[in-house]
Structures are given as C-alpha cells and as structure tokens.
C-alpha cells in the first residue's frame, strides 16, 4: 500500500496520558470504596485508655484486683506422656493433655484413659502425625479413645503440648 500525503498530515494522538489518568482515577475510586466499606462494616476500635479503665472498673465491681481466667471445675490435667512412636522407633513424642468431664473428674478413669493414649501413640507412624491434617486426626482419635474408655463421661480432650522429636 502506498503512503499518501493525507496519512502524513494526520497527527497521532498520545494515548499514554489518558491511560495513566484512567488508572489513577480507578485506583482512587477503588480505595475510597474499600475505605467506606471498612468503615460501614467494622466497628470503631476502643481507645486503649478507655478499655483499660473499663477492665479496672469491672475488677473493682467484682472485688478482685486482677482479672484471671475462670477455673474449670471439670477439667483434669493428665501427666505428660513421653514415649516413642511406632515408626521410626527412634522418634519420640511428648504429649500433655487435659480431659474435660461432664461431671466431677475421676482420677482413676483419667489414668486409664492416659494409659490407652500411650498405647495408641506407640502404634502411630511419623507420616500420620505430619501437617495440620495429621494433628486434626490425632485430636479426633484422642477424643474418641477418651469417650469410649470413659463411656461418654469425657466430653473433650484439650491438647496442651505436642512435640515430636
């Protein structure tokens, strides 16, 4: 195709400046919309001084100086377990658990559950304990063992420490 005189006289428009302007404008609109949505959805945070004075006032009302975690009367901490796992046998596992009973805790029953947990841990392999899924399965198995051995009296197993060496 031949170049004619008409093609040379038409000036080319610079499209870079409008493109940058559009990107800046859309970024500002998006940021403003996100800020507005955040203000509408999230509650305003309390100032640190107001929260501290609220806690102090609650402590004075209840007659105690410091707030402490409430004691759970149906929780029984078991002695820490340190044993080797099934495969590889040179790896050790340290596990400390607490049992939540539906009534008053029974130390003899808790010792039976503890021994059953030790026997179960000795059958595990390292591959079964790896990752978050392995931890979830271990917690489910421990709760099932505790529930079966206690005939439903243990409602929950709380894992305090879990270390595999």
Automatic annotation (TrEMBL):
Localization per Swiss-Prot or TrEMBL: Cell inner membrane; Cell membrane
Pfam families: FliL
Single biological process term from Gene Ontology: bacterial-type flagellum-dependent cell motility
Protein name: Flagellar protein FliL
Signal peptide: none
Organism domain of life: Bacteria
Transmembrane regions: 16-36
Alphabetized UniProt keyword annotations: Cell inner membrane, Cell membrane, Cell projection, Chemotaxis, Cilium, Flagellar rotation, Flagellum, Membrane, Transmembrane, Transmembrane helix
GO cellular component: a single term: bacterial-type flagellum basal body
Role description: Controls the rotational direction of flagella during chemotaxis.
InterPro entries: FliL (IPR005503)
Topology with respect to the bilayer: Single-pass membrane protein
Record-stated family: Belongs to the FliL family.
């Amino acid at each position: 195709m031949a170049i004619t005189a008409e093609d040379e006289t038409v000036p080319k428009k610079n499209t870079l400046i409008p493109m940058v302007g559009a990107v800046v404008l859309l970024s500002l609109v998006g940021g403003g919309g996100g800020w507005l949505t955040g203000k509408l959805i999230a509650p305003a945070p309390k100032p640190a001084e107001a929260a501290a004075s609220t806690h102090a006032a609650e402590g004075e009302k209840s007659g105690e100086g410091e707030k402490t975690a409430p004691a759970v009367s149906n929780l029984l901490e078991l002695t820490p377990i340190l044993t080797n796992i099934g495969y590889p046998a040179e790896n050790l596992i340290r596990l400390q658990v607490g049992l939540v009973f539906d009534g008053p805790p029974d130390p003899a029953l808790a010792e039976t559950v503890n021994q059953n947990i030790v026997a179960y841990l000795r059958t595990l392999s390292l591959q079964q304990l790896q990752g978050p899924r392995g931890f979830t399965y271990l917690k489910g198995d421990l709760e099932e063992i505790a529930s079966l051995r206690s005939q439903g009296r243990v409602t929950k197993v709380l894992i305090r420490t879990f270390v595999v060496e």
